[in-house]
Design brief:
By secondary structure, the chain is mainly β. It is about 0% helix and about 50% strand. It is built from no helices and eleven strands. The strands form two sheets. Strands 2, 4, 5, 6, 9, 10 and 11 form a seven-stranded mixed β-sheet that branches. Strands 1-3-8-7 form a four-stranded antiparallel β-sheet, with no helix packed on it. The protein is globular.
């Protein structure tokens, strides 16, 4: 079992930055790919980025060059978000599972953290 807890969300002005954290418990966490997804009101959950246990990173085209995913040697994955846009207001979720960009590829999910970007 893997339990995930996100933190770091909040209110930021357009153009600003936030860093989200995803802290996990579970002995096998380090073997999973960890991804960030987001879901805006009335929209489907969408892939943002992922990082595998080998350190392979995948980014959605919309965030390339602005967002950076990283993981420490223990149990935390970070999402550094720069130059945020109002349309990126959403609940951000971290998830652990296979190396995939689809929601169905991830068996474990956090409760989400709200990110609000004001224009």
């Amino acid at each position: 079992q893997v339990r995930l807890v996100e933190s770091g969300g909040g209110l930021v002005q357009a153009g600003g930055s936030l860093r989200l954290s995803c802290t996990a418990s579970g002995r096998t966490f380090y073997t999973y790919t960890v991804a960030w997804f987001r879901q805006a009101p009335g929209k489907e959950r969408e892939f943002v980025t992922s990082i595998s246990w080998r350190g392979n990173r995948v980014y959605a085209d919309s965030v390339k060059g602005r967002f950076t995913v990283s993981r420490d040697s223990a149990n935390t994955v970070y999402l550094q978000m720069n130059s945020l846009r109002a349309e990126e207001t959403a609940i951000y979720y971290c998830a652990a599972g296979a190396e995939d960009t689809l929601v169905g590829g991830y068996a474990y999910w956090g409760q989400g953290t709200q990110v609000t970007v004001s224009s």
